[in-house]
């Protein structure tokens, strides 16, 4: 049986949803009957463990991996040695996906793993998207579709709320913050702008609370910070309890706790007010991103019909209060929409609208090839159209002959509707040059005349390729570089010199090859 599977592969929690027999999205609870599963992996005594047990065992395990999604941008370089073997973020993320799939298969043993939709943050570039796709393939799927988390949340919200609207999705999860503005009409979802911070989320609020608690424990227990920090058990205790206490502060005005230090117990009380004051900077950082997303979409808050809050951290009262104090007119527009589940359910809906590849089979009697039949569990709801925007500004490194330094010449800008293609004209640096080194850089610069050329230090290199050219090339001869982003957000860079043209697609760079995928899949499946 084919189920429409949608997976929210989150920084701190992940979730799997399917479409049920009546065509509604439903979250499949994990084997401990919870909707979401911690994205935590531990390794101990030669065994991997993922999810709730891993989170509980983390303080005692030989090795713990948390928030691995934050390393997806370094999928080609970041490695962790576990049990004497090296693992990258793709293989580790695959273990989280596999845990969700294993729990799903326990409940739906007739399920055939064909394809799934996995979500990623809107600002993920081609490399991170490909890394996420490969994690899904390693976890056992034949095909993986990727859609952006805010788009998935908007699909799930849009389905329940008809009419043509401008929606602002404010998504504050465990490790990331994303804001996306979309025009939603029936089954059409048009992204107008997107912004975010891959290093801002509930974990930063946890860290702030840990600092407050440490300070209070020192004051109340008459300890110096060095004394407290030299007590590993006390620190582990504070860190383990902090997330739960943060969650309690969303419903209580203050939380009480106690830490054992040596032979004595030190009590403390933290008020919501203290916590909110300590995290005002983080909240403000999200509001600044909301501002820039509005600016990029050329809208004001008055043009927004609904603000959809998703991500577990939007349960903190300070989020709603912060939006209202920054944009006083927005109070009635704020909707809390299944904060933990909207992304996975939206992904399941999206998966339902995708055609399943049907393999042709040979009829044993007639010997003719006939179209295979696939039993799909949920009725198909029709198609969904999604128009995306470019997540990052893309340019190439050029030599500035006047200033005598390298610069990045931006060619396509973030938040342009996809597909987009643009050309830059450059020139050969010196006579008899035999190769052009095309280095592609991404950044967050908005489109403006001032941002056509920017400093190298403010951009990140995401790929490069060499173009061999004849040695009779002359200084100043024209070189054209085109950067194109297609509907799927793949970035293709093409360099043309005389009649020589060479193209390079960014997504594939440095990620796992087929053999590595096969071997990672084998090691996960056991
Ligand atoms: P997500 O990535 O959307 O699953 O969000 C996970 C984050 O939401 C974690 O940092 C949780 O601690 C946080 N979270 C979940 N529920 C609450 C709550 N009631 N109050 C504050 N934070 C919460």
Instruction: State the secondary-structure class.
Output: alpha+beta
How far apart the termini lie comes to: 24 Å
Overall tally of domains: 3
From the 3D coordinates, which CATH architecture of the largest domain would you assign? 2-Layer Sandwich
- Most strands sheet: 6 strands, mixed
Helical fraction? 25-40%
Provide the CATH topology of the largest domain.
Nucleotidyltransferase, domain 5
**What is the CATH class name of the largest domain?**
Alpha Beta
Distinct small molecules bound, one entry per kind? adenosine monophosphate
Q: How many DSSP H or I helices?
A: 12
Unreliable segments (pLDDT under 50, ≥5 consecutive)? none
How would you sum up this structure, described in words?
The chain has three domains: 5-161 and 339-386 and 513-525, ATPase, nucleotide binding domain (Nucleotidyltransferase, domain 5, 2-Layer Sandwich), CATH 3.30.420.40; 202-278, Actin, Chain A, domain 4; 393-506, Substrate Binding Domain Of DNAk, Chain A, domain 1, CATH 2.60.34. The model has no long low-confidence stretch (mean pLDDT 92). 28% of the residues lie in helices and 32% in strands. It starts with a strand and ends with a helix. Strands 1, 2, 3, 4, 10 and 11 form a six-stranded mixed sheet that branches. A six-stranded mixed sheet has the order 18-17-12-13-14-21. It is of the alpha+beta class and 526 residues long. The structure holds adenosine monophosphate.
């Amino acid at each position: 049986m084919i189920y429409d599977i949608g997976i929210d592969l989150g920084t701190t929690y992940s979730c799997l949803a399917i479409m049920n027999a009546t065509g509604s999205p439903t979250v499949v609870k994990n084997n401990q009957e919870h909707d979401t599963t911690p994205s935590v992996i531990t390794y101990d005594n030669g065994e991997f463990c993922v999810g709730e047990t891993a989170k509980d065992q983390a303080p005692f395990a030989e090795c713990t991996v948390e928030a691995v999604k934050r390393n997806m941008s370094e999928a080609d370089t970041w490695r962790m040695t576990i049990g004497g073997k090296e693992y990258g973020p793709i293989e580790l993320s695959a273990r989280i996906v596999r845990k969700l799939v294993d729990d799903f298969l326990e409940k739906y043993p007739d399920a055939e793993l064909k394809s799934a939709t996995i979500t990623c943050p809107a600002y993920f570039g081609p490399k991170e998207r490909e890394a996420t796709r490969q994690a899904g393939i390693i976890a056992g799927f034949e095909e993986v579709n990727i859609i952006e988390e805010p788009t998935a949340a908007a699909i799930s919200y849009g389905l329940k709320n008809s009419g043509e609207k401008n929606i602002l999705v404010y998504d504050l999860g465990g490790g990331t913050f994303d804001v996306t503005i979309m025009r939603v009409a029936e089954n059409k979802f048009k992204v107008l702008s997107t912004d975010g911070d891959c290093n801002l989320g509930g974990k930063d609020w946890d860290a702030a609370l840990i600092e407050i608690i440490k300070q209070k424990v020192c004051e109340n227990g008459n300890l110096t910070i060095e004394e407290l920090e030299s007590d590993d058990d006390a620190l582990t205790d504070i860190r383990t309890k902090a997330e739960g206490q943060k969650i309690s502060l969303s419903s209580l005005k203050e939380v009480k706790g106690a830490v054992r230090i040596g032979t004595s117990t030190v009590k403390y009380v933290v008020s919501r007010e203290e916590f909110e004051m300590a995290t005002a900077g983080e909240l403000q950082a999200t509001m600044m991103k909301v501002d820039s997303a509005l600016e990029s979409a050329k809208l004001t808050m008055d043009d927004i019909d609904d603000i959809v809050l998703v991500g577990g951290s939007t349960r903190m009262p300070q989020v709603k209060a912060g939006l209202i104090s920054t944009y006083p007119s927005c109070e009635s527009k704020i909707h809390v929409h299944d904060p933990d589940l909207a992304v996975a359910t939206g992904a399941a809906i999206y998966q339902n609208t995708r055609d399943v590849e049907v393999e042709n089979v040979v009829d044993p009697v007639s010997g003719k090839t006939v179209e295979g039949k696939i039993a799909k569990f949920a009725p198909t709801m029709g198609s969904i159209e999604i128009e995306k925007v470019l997540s990052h500004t893309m340019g190439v490194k050029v030599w500035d002959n006047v200033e005598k330094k390298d610069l990045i010449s931006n060619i396509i800008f973030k938040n342009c509707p996809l597909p987009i293609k643009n050309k830059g004209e450059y020139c050969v640096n010196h006579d008899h040059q035999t190769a052009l080194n095309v280095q592609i850089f991404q950044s967050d610069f908005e489109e403006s005349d001032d941002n056509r050329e920017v400093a190298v230090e403010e951009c990140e290199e995401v790929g490069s390729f060499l173009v061999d050219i004849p040695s009779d090339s002359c200084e100043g001869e024209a070189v054209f570089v085109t950067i194109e982003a297609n509907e799927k957000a793949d970035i293709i860079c093409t360099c043309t010199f005389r009649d020589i043209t060479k193209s390079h697609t960014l997504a594939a760079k440095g990620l796992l090859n087929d053999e590595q995928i096969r071997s990672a899949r084998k090691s996960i499946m056991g």
